[in-house]
Specification:
4 strands, rod-shaped, 9 helices
């Protein structure tokens, strides 16, 4: 479509399409029946008329055949004046009189005719050959084409040789009969000719076609009425209810008070579907209302949790600020320990070492015990200073271990050395 939307093939369209397809199929079936009807009906009508004409010609032929002995006597007595009374000549004369001004035609044909006008056409020759091959065959009919190229209906009955025929057509063959023709040497019962009725099939077809058209027209009209009634019934009982359900489903919005399907009080499946839809809409509205309440409760809970989280965040920021302050204080403390303590201690150690050197020099000159005692005192001062430097180093090492995650490893120590170190450290205080 021009606006890009897909063509909507609804239930009504499908029903109309199905009815159109069925009507088309029935129409073609009716046309096929009509063609068959025209062929069969026109053939049957032509055959009935041909049978009636053949019965009349048989009656004429039988009458002439019964009186053939008298006819032969007249021919012998009067010659050519009585030629018209001969059997074949009499029958052909009656046939010619019938053919005048008539669309139907009666002929006497033979495979070996004495007169060329009695020669058969293709269809008649086929019939004569069939009679000769099967002597029990009583008739041969069908639609063929005459010498003018027109389609005609053929109906032929065989003419068998009788006793009266032998005077002109019997034995001996080659003998001249009363009319001057040579005898053929036929015997009684042989089929050597036939009465052929040819009828124009067009008129019968026109009549049958008119009847077929009338019948097909009434049939199709009745079919249209039935299909129209079916469509009206389907529209009232199926399409309209389905459209109501579809419209309600398309317009439904949960929690907005959408309209329900009306006329849902029937007992059929569509009314049950409408009731189910209304019940489903009610349930969805209830769920939607409950969902809204739950959303509000969850929103309030999230707001409370957000407030608590904000408070915790403020507490964490405060703790972080305090921790940063403590860290800065600790850093300054360690810097003081590292710089302000270690530097004086290093000076003390250096001075004690210098003093020890001076005392050693004096003791060699004075040779007394006083310099030795002074040297011991100075050694103790140096040892205590070095101990204090080790303690500062240990404090700094513990600080680095806490900040960088250095693992401590236990190791064995000499308790005697530890006791001696403690003794030398505590001795000055004890004195």
């Amino acid at each position: 479509m021009a606006d890009g939307r897909k063509w909507k093939t609804g239930l009504q369209f499908k029903v109309l399409t199905a009815l159109a397809v069925l009507f088309t199929l029935f129409m073609f079936a009716a046309l096929a029946w009509g063609l068959t009807f025209v062929h069969d009906h026109s053939t049957n009508d032509a055959k009935e008329r041909a049978i009636a004409l053949s019965d009349q010609m048989d009656a004429v032929w039988d009458y002439v055949d019964e009186n053939q002995p008298a006819t032969n006597a007249y021919v012998q007595q009067f010659g050519d004046l009585a030629r018209g009374l001969v059997c074949v000549t009499s029958v052909k004369s009656i046939a010619r009189d019938f053919n005048k001004g008539n669309t139907d035609e009666i002929r006497v044909v033979a495979l070996e005719p004495r007169n060329k006008e009695d020669s058969p056409d293709d269809f008649e020759r086929e019939a004569l050959e069939a009679f000769a091959a099967d002597e029990s065959l009583e008739e041969y009919s069908g639609i063929g084409t005459n010498e003018n190229g027109d389609q005609v209906y053929y109906y032929l009955r065989p003419r068998r040789v009788t006793e009266s025929c032998l005077s002109c057509h019997g034995a001996p063959a080659g003998e001249t009969d009363v009319l001057g023709y040579k005898k053929e040497g036929y015997s009684v019962g042989m089929v050597k000719g036939a009465v052929s009725v040819r009828e124009s099939i067009g008129g019968y077809r026109d009549t049958a076609a008119a009847g077929a058209v009338e019948g097909i027209g009434l049939y199709l009209l009745g079919l249209l009425v039935v299909m129209g009634a079916m469509y009206a019934l389907l529209r009232a009982t199926v399409i309209k209810p389905v459209e109501r359900v579809s419209a309600a489903a398309s317009a439904y919005r949960p929690g907005e008070g959408s309209k329900r399907i009306e006329q849902a009080d029937g007992t059929d499946e569509l009314a049950e579907l409408a009731r189910d839809f209304n019940a489903m809409a009610d349930d969805l509205d209830g769920l939607y209302a409950d969902l809204g309440q739950r959303v509000e409760e969850r929103t309030a809970q999230l707001e409370r949790m957000n407030g608590q989280l904000q408070d915790k965040q403020e507490e964490l920021e405060s703790a972080l600020s305090k921790l940063q302050s403590e860290t800065e204080y600790k850093s300054r403390l360690f810097a003081s320990l590292s710089h302000d303590l270690r530097t004086p201690l290093a000076s003390i150690i250096a001075l004690t070492q210098l003093a020890e050197t001076q005392v050693t020099s004096d003791s060699q000159e004075l040779e007394s015990d006083t310099p030795n005692r002074d040297k011991e005192v100075l050694g103790s001062i140096g040892d205590q200073a070095r101990t204090l430097v080790g303690m500062v180093d240990n404090i700094l090492a513990f600080s680095r271990a806490e900040s960088s995650g250095i693992e401590l490893h236990l190791s064995a120590i000499d308790l005697v050395d530890l006791a001696s170190h403690v003794r030398s450290t505590m001795q000055p205080i004890a004195i």
